[in-house]
Write a structure and sequence with these properties.
The complex is a heterodimer. Chain A is built from 21 helices and 16 strands. The mean pLDDT of chain A is 94. Helices cover 42% and strands 17% of the residues of chain A. Chain A is an alpha/beta fold. In chain A, α18 packs antiparallel against α19. Chain B is an alpha+beta fold. Chain B has an 8-stranded antiparallel beta sheet with strand order 26-27-28-29-30-31-32-33, covered by helices on one side. A 5-stranded parallel beta sheet of chain B has the order 3-2-1-4-5. Chain B has a 4-stranded antiparallel beta sheet with strand order 6-9-7-8. Chain B is globular, with a radius of gyration of 28 Å. Chain B starts with 10 loop residues before the first strand and ends in a 5-residue tail after the last strand. About 1% of the residues of chain B have low confidence. The chains are: A alpha/beta, B alpha+beta. Chains A and B meet through α1, α3, β2, β3 and α11 of A and α17 of B.
């Protein structure tokens, strides 16, 4: 093994330019997320008036201070609620991620009830379900901090209701898998939402604030004419004493979260998982901070992906697999925080040799039980007579087949382009990577906008030639521009992340930490033994 | 080679506890004696028990049933075959009956004869004897006629102000300063009852009060061969209510001539009563260098280490030597004083609450080390300072070639020691040592009373820097606790969130003050802290179990810290210990114990009496109960007006600090 020698000079002009461009995008990302935070914070006075904590305060109070937190789907619903980039609110009115409670790795979903009283957005249900799926897969106790006005009837869509049931179905699946589920009822949880406490293993109700009923006072009055008091109808105190739906009655938000921390701590959860033998490792020789200056934000500008790897792996030390064969697909072995992994990157489109090499490398990692990390900067598989005749389809298929079926954890980062079938071979969304994050400069889609436009331009010119009519250059230019816009507007990382086509956008400088956290989460999941049951625990 | 002289004894039982028992055993062991400890049920596992070769349980915690029970101690000596008993100081050290009982049992009492103890134990008799021996005495009255009229007449003869003292006493109990005649009779009454309680005798003496004198005492040593020498003096002028706080040797204003005169007087006093062993002759020294005999202590003094450090002698070793019947082997001309030594008594007491004795468990104890630093202590981590005994934690002694060197070393040693679990007088001691008047060697017995008024002793609230440090330490301790419990994570992932900064919030409440502190980790490894509206940058340069080095806005701070409970951090900055409780980590219902109707025990102790019952109406300040702790009585008062809802306390019961005693339903105050 050898330490990589970087050719990048942090004093160079290109480094400075790259860094400036990248940090601009990073800043845009933080500003987007801040938009949701600011909106929610506007309700702070209201929360304080009611003796409540704000949603972000609840999250922090639930978590162990200073322990890592991996946010998930932070941009969910961005550009879904509205087409206006400047007005769209990311987050889908919830805060979700993997964090630690008394040292126990947990999945946490918290209603961001500072925004529209926590009413469900179009992507809220999906976001919740994906988090639940990950909790099942990664064997993470599931903690839900609920305060939601429920579905927005004005924006009712039948799909949301139809698929929405999956959020409750998964609670049952979690319980049956032997993964406990928790609800802290901070506020209302009405109608369908009432099944969140109903179907969770442990319910903590906040006195005077937490409520659960199938119909709120307004609906009841409309339905039956009965005039009822919300507390009698749905209050935590009532549920703690009369229905038995609430296990633990808390005085206030802080108390409820303390109880949640306490009961999670009492599960002895970490006694049921062996501890890894953590090997000593060195920090990368090249600071991960330098990633921002290493990568040009425009995917069309080539760079050596090994420069990125050198800023991700222990000691900037790796061994390249078959460097002289199919060299545009870079495969190498390295460690991250002491954990061995196979890393796959791109130094250009994948040719048949590269595809074959990739397929072989995935299988070798699978054989050795080494997780795979995919750094996507891929415009696609090679096209053209030469490559077709060399069996591009056959070799590319083998690579996609291998990536589909490897049994080891897959961590995917979109660090530049991820187009077409190249995305498939590099463990894109549909290939169910364990974790999938995008850098803010990432572009994904069937192809780049420019490429699509040029292709269509070519088609139009060929058609005109065939028909013998002159080319309408003006119309063609308009069409080309429209196509570029159409493609690119759907390709950028913020847009795709808003549609939950990844687990979130990250700061490229955090990549080593994100991959490390993901690898550790996968290790824990694979080493933990659960005690499943058939039907989930019933509240009897 | 001379003839072999056999020892008279080879084993020593130390009839004491705490630091002095440990200190005596150290010397005894080094001389090859087998050491035997005695201990009460409260001292199971105490340091003096572990230091000894053997140990005998002698009874329950109260001193009357253990350390003052001479029969039980003699039985322990018999059981273990102890041939000699060292009584230490306090307890049975000046009990002539005990000395006689030892002799009768054939056990050597390491101390003076019972006759000498008896004589010096009675202040009046002692003074008459000293006057006869031409030792200068304070004019006074010490006759057996104790009628008020005779005492009043005597007081008039002496001239006010006069000092009323218990004839049998010591240590300030039964002592009253009377400035005017009209206050004399009440002072006599209260002194009598206090003396009777403390010493079993209500006999009083009167003395002319010497205003603002120094307290200077001379250490003497006598063997059984007629040799009597003195080992120089100690200045113990820094006293609070007649309790010594700082002791030093030599006295800062001593001259060779004066030392020679005082030394000769002390030697004469000892010679006159055919004294044996270690003794201390206490004098008052006035501004014109006139000195008056005060009393003689017929035992090893608490403050003996300062004499040891300036003479280079081991006083316990000399005591044993004399008890063996050997000659001292030292002439007066062999004694020379070199350098300067200062001792302070580190106590578990709350100087902000009228020096209220404190109890608790020692959670951390790491005495400072360094050139010229000596700690005499009998405590250890995990040990309880119980209400049954003197709450002294340790004697801290510093030696230096000059007084200034000793003084600074002592200040640094106090600051550098890690102590948690108890409220201590440490920062008061540092303030005393740093005070200009003391630094200049000008302190008299009036020093503390004059310079340390209530205002100065009031607890100071923490500043923003201290709050920022407390929050960051709490944050890191909580983080590391979780980290230790986690299955798999890495150092590099600490303080990191992929979703941007997570703001951890703390609310510290103390009295009226409420401070909001937020901590957020920054990419560069520092913490951005907001104390209310003030931003601070805190970096943790190093952190051990109880020590930390932090930088706050570029300024380096070394401090000690402790996290005794969840969401609680104690921080010692320059010897001052502050406690921070993150009140938002607790539910609303648990907050606000102070100034509320929840009345809790302020300390461990016994409830002597309960004055209210459920349903009683109380005002702010109504006496609810009286608690006895550390031999002192404390009133428990209502902090709110209202109706007593529940009485949990019952008379004659033991309570622990923080125990709920009463619930008072506060009355509506109206707007």
């Amino acid at each position: 093994m050898a330490t990589f020698t970087s050719k990048i000079a942090p004093s160079s002009e290109s480094y400075a330019k790259n860094r400036q461009d990248m940090l601009l995008l990073v800043d845009q990302h933080y500003k987007l997320k801040d938009r949701a935070k600011q909106l929610s914070e506007r309700r702070r006075d209201r929360f304080e008036e009611r003796g409540q904590l704000t949603p972000r305060e609840r999250l922090v109070r639930l978590l162990d201070p200073g322990m890592p937190f991996l946010e998930l789907f932070g941009l969910a619903n961005y550009m879904v609620d509205t087409d206006d980039r400047d007005k769209s609110i990311p987050g889908a009115s919830s805060l979700t991620g993997i964090g630690f409670i008394n040292g126990i790795r947990c999945m946490i979903c918290a209603s961001d009830s500072g925004i529209n009283a926590g009413a469900m957005t179009q992507k809220s249900g999906e976001k919740l379900r994906y988090c639940q799926d990950m909790a099942i897969d990664k064997k993470l106790p599931f903690v839900h901090l609920v305060e939601s006005a429920g579905a927005n009837l004005l924006k009712y869509q039948v799909e949301s209701w139809a698929w929405g049931g999956g959020g409750f179905q998964r609670l049952a699946k979690l319980s049956a898998a032997g993964i406990p589920t928790f609800v802290v009822l901070h506020g209302p949880s009405t109608a369908g939402g009432a099944y969140f406490p109903g179907m969770s293993d442990y319910v903590i109700g906040i006195k005077g604030r937490g409520r659960a009923s199938l119909g709120g006072a307004a609906l009841v009055r409309a339905a039956t004419g009965e005039i009822s008091d919300e507390e009698e109808l749905a209050g935590s105190e009532m549920h703690a004493t009369t229905t038995g739906l609430v296990e633990y009655l808390a005085e206030d938000d802080a108390h409820g979260l303390l109880i949640a921390r306490d009961i999670i701590g009492r599960l002895g959860w970490n006694d049921k998982c062996p501890r890894p033998e953590i090997k000593a490792f060195k920090e990368p020789v090249y600071d991960p901070e330098e990633i921002a200056g290493t990568v040009p934000v425009d995917y069309r500008k080539p760079y050596d992906v090994r420069e990125v790897v050198a800023r991700l792996v222990d000691g900037s030390d790796f061994e390249e697999f078959k460097p002289r064969y199919g060299s545009t697909l870079v495969c190498l072995q390295a460690n991250i925080f002491g954990q061995a992994c196979g890393i796959v990157g791109n130094n250009g489109p994948i040719d048949p040799d590269g595809a074959a090499k990739g397929g072989q490398f995935f299988q070798l990692c699978d054989q050795a039980n080494i997780p795979l990390v995919f750094l996507n900067n891929i415009t696609g598989y090679m096209v053209g007579k030469e490559y077709e005749q060399k069996g591009m389809i056959k070799h590319g298929s083998k690579m996609i087949q291998a990536v589909s079926n490897v049994r080891v954890p897959k961590i995917t980062l979109y660090i530049g382009a991820s187009f077409g079938a190249g995305n498939y071979g590099m463990a894109g969304l549909a290939y169910e990577p364990d974790f999938l994050f995008a850098w803010p400069n990432a572009m994904t889609g069937v192809m780049g906008g420019e490429q699509a436009a040029t292709t269509m331009d070519q088609v139009a010119r060929s058609g005109a030639e065939r028909k013998g009519v002159p080319v309408d250059e003006e119309a063609l230019a308009v069409q080309k521009k429209r196509l570029i816009d159409h493609f690119d507007s759907q390709a950028d990382a913020f847009y795709t992340s808003g549609r939950l086509l990844d687990h979130g956008v990250i700061d490229p400088r955090d990549s080593r930490k994100v991959i490390g956290f993901a690898l550790q989460t996968c290790w824990e999941a694979r080493n933990r033994t659960l005690q499943p049951n058939s039907f989930g625990v019933g509240r009897l | 080679m001379g003839p072999v002289i056999m020892r008279k004894f080879n084993s020593i039982l130390v009839a004491n506890r705490g630091e002095i028992a440990v200190r005596i055993m150290k010397t005894a062991k080094s001389l090859g004696y087998r050491t035997i400890a005695v201990y009460s049920e409260a001292d199971v596992g105490a340091l003096h028990v572990r230091t000894a070769d053997e140990a005998v349980l002698i009874g329950p915690a109260p001193v009357q049933q253990s350390y003052l029970d001479s029969a039980r101690i003699l039985a322990a000596a018999k059981e273990t075959g102890a041939e000699a008993i060292h009584p230490g100081y306090g307890f049975l050290s000046e009990n002539a009956e005990f000395a006689r009982a030892c002799e009768a049992a054939g056990i050597i009492f390491i101390g003076p004869t019972a006759e000498a103890i008896d004589l010096m134990g009675n202040k009046a008799a002692a003074k008459r004897r000293m006057i006869a021996a031409n030792v200068p005495c304070v004019p006074g009255y010490e006759d057996p006629d104790q009628s008020d009229d005779v005492l009043a007449a005597a007081a008039r003869d002496i001239g006010f102000p006069v000092m009323v003292k218990a004839a049998a006493g010591g240590g300030g109990r039964g002592m009253r300063l009377v400035h005017e005649e009209k206050n004399l009779i009440p002072a006599l009454e209260s002194a009598r009852s206090e003396a009777l309680n403390a010493f079993g005798s209500d006999e009083l003496i009167l003395e002319k009060a010497i205003i603002e004198p120094r307290h200077v005492e001379v250490q003497i040593f006598a063997d059984t061969h007629g040799n009597v020498i003195h080992l120089g003096e100690r200045d113990c002028s820094v006293q609070r209510r007649h309790q010594k706080v700082v002791e030093e040797a030599p006295c800062p204003v001593m001259t060779p001539e004066l030392r020679q005169k005082m030394g000769a007087a002390a030697v004469e006093a000892a010679r006159n009563i055919k004294y044996r062993g270690a003794g201390t002759v206490e004098f008052l020294l006035d501004a014109s260098n006139k000195f008056y005999f005060l009393e003689m202590n017929t035992r090893l003094q608490v403050e003996h280490p300062v004499t040891e450090l300036v003479t280079g002698l081991d006083l316990v070793s000399l005591q044993i030597q004399v008890a063996e019947g050997a000659p001292l082997g030292l002439e007066q001309s062999d004694i020379s004083l070199r350098g300067h030594a200062i001792e302070v008594r580190l106590y578990a007491e709350d100087t902000t609450q009228d020096f209220l004795p404190c109890t608790g468990r020692i959670e951390a104890w790491e005495p400072a080390t360094g050139d010229g630093i000596r700690f005499d202590s009998g405590i250890d981590v995990g040990q309880e300072i119980s209400p049954f005994y003197d709450p002294m934690i340790a004697k801290v002694i510093a030696y230096g070639e000059s007084r200034e060197m000793a003084r600074h070393r002592l200040i640094e040693a106090l600051k550098g020691s890690v102590i948690f679990g108890l409220t201590t007088n440490r920062s008061f001691l540092i303030d005393v040592l740093a005070e200009k008047k003391f630094a200049k060697g000008e302190a008299t017995t009036a020093f503390i009373g004059d310079l340390f008024d209530e205002d100065r002793l009031t607890a100071k609230s923490p500043d923003t820097t201290e709050m920022a440090m407390a929050a960051v330490l709490l944050y890191q301790v909580e983080r590391d606790r979780a980290r230790a419990a986690a299955i798999f994570t890495s150092d590099q992932l600490m303080d990191w969130s992929s979703g941007g900064v997570l703001l951890t919030r703390y609310v510290f409440e103390a009295g009226e003050a409420r401070n909001d502190v937020t901590v957020s980790p920054h990419r560069d490894g520092s913490y951005h802290v907001m104390v209310d509206d003030k931003p601070l940058k805190v970096e943790v340069m190093g952190r051990g179990e109880n020590r930390a080095q932090l930088t706050v806005d570029g300024k380096r701070k070394r401090l000690h810290y402790n996290t005794p409970a969840n969401s609680v951090v104690e921080l010692t900055d320059d010897g001052r210990t502050l406690r921070f409780v993150n009140t938002i980590a607790f539910p609303l219902s648990a907050a606000g114990a102070v100034g509320s109707g929840h009345v809790v025990a302020p300390m461990h102790g016994t409830l002597l009496d309960v004055f209210v019952k459920a349903g009683d109406t109380v005002e702010v300040g109504t006496r609810l109960a009286v608690l006895e702790a550390m031999k002192m009585q404390h009133d428990i008062l209502a902090e709110v007006a209202g109706v007593v809802e529940e009485v949990i306390a019952s008379a004659a019961s033991q309570v622990s600090v923080g125990d709920l005693l009463f619930e008072i339903e506060a009355a509506e105050t109206g707007e």
